[in-house]
Each structure stands twice: as C-alpha cells, then as structure tokens.
Specification:
The chain is 48% helix and 18% strand. By secondary structure, the protein is α/β, with parallel strands linked by helices. The longest helix has 21 residues. It is globular and about 50 Å long.
C-alpha cells in the first residue's frame, strides 16, 4: 500500500469489538466522501484467508499473511493514491504506514449485548466479545500499534453518536486534504 507521502487522499481504518458499528459507519463515511470502502471481513471470506474453523468460537482462524498480501497488491494496484476506508475488528496486524487515521469505535456493554444477540452470536462468542470491550482490548491494541496522534476513540451507541462520528471524520478528512495540498 502506498506510503503516507505518496497519497493524495487519506486511508482510514475503523476498528473495534464486533457489534460497535464499524461496517455501518465505514460504509457511510466512504459513500459521503467518495472513497473506497474495504470490508476486511469480506476480503477474508472472498479470498479464503483462513486456516481452520474454531467450533467453540464459531469463527475461522485468520491467515494474516495471506490477507495482508492480498490487500497490499489490490490496494497498490487500484488505490495507490489513497482513499480507502477499511473496517475490521482488529488493527495490530496492519502496517502503521497503511493508515492515516485509526478510529476505534466503542459501545456500552448493554448495547453491545443486544447487537450481538441480534446477530445470533452464541453465549461464549458474545461473552468473549463483551469481555474484550470491557477490557479495552482494541483501543489498547491501537494505541500500542500506531502513533497516538492518529488514534481516535469514539463512542457509537446511538444514531446521534453515529452521525456525530461521521461528521467528525468528515471534518478530519477535509483538514487532511487541506494540510496535504
């Protein structure tokens, strides 16, 4: 993927525990700003970037190397000048040079419980994800993996908060463009 100096548009990653609204908000931001939305979960499924299936967690085990190789080639080929809005529940696997903004979405555990229940998560998978949110796993991972000035933590419990988050990212985007002209 292009380096920050080469990009004409920024690359943004939305991350957080499953159920916090990453895909919904990333889709809206990409649409509003005319950027490419990359749902990393879909890239994994389409390219079979997994090694095995974990029955207890009801999920596939990720083949990180295969995923990163595919993303690097695809994004360099089609989006060399930037303009990617990606979403995924983890962030530490992506090289720091890939993204200009890391948005860690958070949700209250009651809200998250309801969202994960609606998705049909089994008790173990739901409990592990709620525990992950309580323990601040994704935000800590982001702060350890990226420069602190590019990591933003945003609450995403309600439609109003989602609208505010979209407006905030949109404002950040326009400032980035202005700063890089």
């Amino acid at each position: 993927m292009s380096s920050p100096e080469e990009r004409k548009k920024p690359n943004i990653l939305f991350t957080g525990t499953p159920g916090v609204g990453k895909t919904a908000i990333a889709t809206m931001v990409a649409e509003k700003l005319g950027l490419h939305h990359a749902n990393v979960g879909e890239i994994i499924k389409e390219n079979k970037c997994h090694t095995e299936y974990d029955q207890s967690l009801d999920t596939h085990v990720l083949d990180e190397d295969k995923l990163l190789d595919i993303m690097e080639v695809d994004f360099d080929t089609e989006y060399i000048s930037g303009g990617i809005v990606a979403d995924y529940h983890s962030c530490e696997l992506f090289p720091e040079r890939w993204f200009d903004l890391i948005v860690v979405l958070r949700a209250d555990t009651e809200v998250l419980y309801d969202r994960l229940t609606e998705r049909g998560y089994n008790d173990k998978k739901r409990s592990e994800n709620i525990e992950c949110e309580i323990m601040r796993v994704v935000i800590d991972e982001a702060k350890e993996s990226y420069a602190k000035e590019i990591v933003q933590e945003l609450s995403n419990n309600t439609i109003e908060e989602m609208d505010q988050n979209i407006a905030r990212v949109e404002s950040w985007y326009h400032q980035w463009i202005q700063d890089h002209e």
